Amino acid sequence: MMRAHTTNTQINLSIDRLKDYFTAQQSPKTVATAFGLSVEELHAYTATHGHDMGDLYTKYTARGRIALCVAQFEQALRGNIKMLLFLGKQFPLQDEEKGDKPT
Q1: Widest Cα–Cα separation across the chain
Q2: Are 72 and 87 in contact (CB under 8 A)?
Q3: Which of 41, 58, 65, 100 is least enclosed, having the fewest CB within 10 Å?
Q4: Is the CB of residue 91 less than 8 Å from the CB of residue 83?
């Protein structure tokens, strides 16, 4: 566990845990606030450990969105009617006027 330091507080925050928060779609501002840091301090912390916060955020929020979509499709394929309806509205590949062929 790596430690981030602020002028007033010492907190525990690992890069792996930061990746988990970003995967869960948490913004840098939300994470920083939760640990009593400014976004600038969080950025400096990641840089100190050889990472760019922007790159981490972009990469891991994308992974989180993909994981969520996969989980939703798995639920729909298992017969979850509510998820089928939800995904049907999110991905309107069916058009009642044109039949069920994508355009």
Answers
A1: 63
A2: yes
A3: 100
A4: no
Phi first, then psi: what are they for 54, rounded to 5°? -60, -45
Please give the structure tokens belonging to residue 102: 């994508």
Q: How far apart are CA 2 and CA 10, in angstroms?
A: 10
User: What is the DSSP secondary-structure string of 20-84?
Assistant: HHHHTT--HHHHHHHTT--HHHHHHHHHHTT--HHHHHHHHHHHHHHHHHHHHHHHHHTT-HHHH
Please state whether the predicted TM-score (pTM) of the whole model is above 0.85. Answer: no
Residue 101 has pLDDT above 70, yes or no: no
Separation CA 74–CA 80 (nearest Å): 9
Is the pLDDT at 92 greater than 90, yes or no?
no
Question: Cβ distance 22 to 60 under 8 Å?
Answer: yes
Those residues whose C-beta lies under 8 Å from the C-beta of residue 45, and which sit 6 or more positions away, are 4, 13, 37
Q: What residues contact residue 65 under an 8 Å CB cut-off, 6+ apart? A: 25
